Amino acid sequence: MSRKSKITISALLAAVSLTQTCAFASELSDWAVSDYQMANEAGLVSYSVVANNMSAGITREQFCELAVNLYRSLTDETLLEPQVSIFEDTDNMAVSQAYLYGIVSGTSATTFEPKKQVTRQEMAKMLVSTLNAAEVSFAMAPNDDYSVISQFDDAGDTSSWAVGSVTTMLNYDFMNGVTEDKLDPLGYATREQAIASVNRSYSQFKQEDVSLALPQITSIANGDERDLEDLAVSWTPVDGVHSYTVILKDGNGSFITSKTVNDATSVVIPQSELSTDSDYVVIVGGVMSNGVEVYSLPIDFSIKSADPVVADTGSKVQNANSEKAKAVLAEAEKYLGVMYRYGGTSPQTGFDCSGFCQYVFSNSVGISLHRVSRDQYAKDGVSVSKSELQPGDLVFFGSGGSVSHVGIYVGDGEMIHSPSTGKPVQFTSINSDYYTSRYIGAKRVL
After folding, report:
1. Is the predicted pLDDT of residue 229 greater than 80, yes or no?
2. Average pLDDT over residues 168-187
3. Nearest 10 degrees: Cα torsion 28, 33, 35, 39
4. How are beta strands 241-250 and 278-288 bridged, if at all?
5. Which of 125, 96, 251, 103 is nearest to 189 (CA)?
6. Span 216-245, mean pLDDT?
7. Residue by residue, what is the 3-state secondary structure of 221-255?
8. CA separation for the pair 411, 431 (Å, rounded)
9. How many other CB atoms are there within 10 angstroms of residue 51's CB atom?
10. 444: phi then psi, degrees, rounded to nearest 5
11. 390 within 8 A of 444, measured Cβ to Cβ
């Protein structure tokens, strides 16, 4: 099988993995989600890697943390801990350990340049050095073997000292080209690429299966839209974890703040650290007694402006132009004032946005909608333009092309919907700045 064929198959497998894990964090590429989760279950990831933008370049210091975690997991050794830093420009323990075990070298006798970014060929070299230090059995390609690299258009950019390491990583599928034709050996390795390569190396040479439990965020769901207020973050406990850290990043993956707690499974991020019309990423990590760290999948959410609530001027049923539309609006209006509840699908429990629409259409006209808003948009009804909206149509909102909210159009530029936590079913204008900027489309199911 050719190298290019193997890359294509790897991409397809990554797509399958994504549909199974159902993670939608914007800073993780689709192909990286499965590797990220498996690396965490093996205890291979570190705070400094997860707390920064995972699609941006990884530093020498951060890569040392991953490499040392890989070495420890492959050997099950208790690692040496030097009392004095090896280098003058960093006191990071992982850097000193990686140096002692022959994984890395300094940029001089006294310096390491810990913040310098790692190129993809340097990453390959350090990964091979880690495997050699761990004394695993693998086939190392010679430094004059260009047979695999030559299939990439930029093969000549690979430094002579890196050819064997890069070829080895490609042979084992521990790294891939950035595209089918481009290897980019001199480009900077991203944090998610480094996590993936370390995870694949571990999966190939591990002595036994390790599957650590990860915290799961329970108070926020992917795509949630929240009001500007104190944000409660809760998660499931993990056996053996003695402290947890909640990491908050902006929608571009840049670090904002972190909160650490002992013997607790929730924290509150004050509204002073949040702002309206902004996207965020939240991750919860835990540290075990042996120093191993585990992290949840990233969760995306946004803080929105206050909903422009339409004054209750009476029933909107008269706007409907068909008996079915009248039945839908009449049914929807029965639940004005019922409070929002994430996952709610009935007036007894409360409604989330899609649960409200599903319940109304089923009980009024016997139409079965899909359960979540993105599936309702993708699979229910036929598309209609905003200029052709009629009462009873479903209107969808979100960001980045991803649907996260749905309501029922009632006419005159208004919808009835279950907005968000702390708010009841209500009439709202779809022409406010907030909903106009997030409008994705409409579907007609009547």
Report:
1. yes
2. 94
3. 80
4. antiparallel
5. 125
6. 91
7. CCCEEECCCCEEEEECCCCCEEEEEEEEEECCCCE
8. 12
9. 20
10. -105, 120
11. yes
Beta 224-226 vs 299-303: how paired, if at all? parallel
pTM summary value: 0.70
Cα–Cα dist 103/98, whole Å: 5
Residue 196: which residues within 8 A CB-CB, separation 6 or more? 31, 32, 35, 36, 39, 175
Single-letter amino acid, residue 435: Y
Return the exposure string of 342-363: e unless at least 16 CB atoms fall within 10 Å of the residue's CB, then b.
bebbebeebbbbbbbbbbbbeb
Q: How many residues does the chain have?
A: 446
Residue 292 and residue 210 in contact, taking contact as beta carbons nearer than 8 Å: no
> Residues 351-383: pLDDT tens digits?
999 999 999 999 999 999 999 999 999 999 999
pLDDT of residue 74: 95
The two structure tokens encoding residue 242: 């003695």
Q: Residue 295 is inside which H or E element, if any?
A: strand 293-295
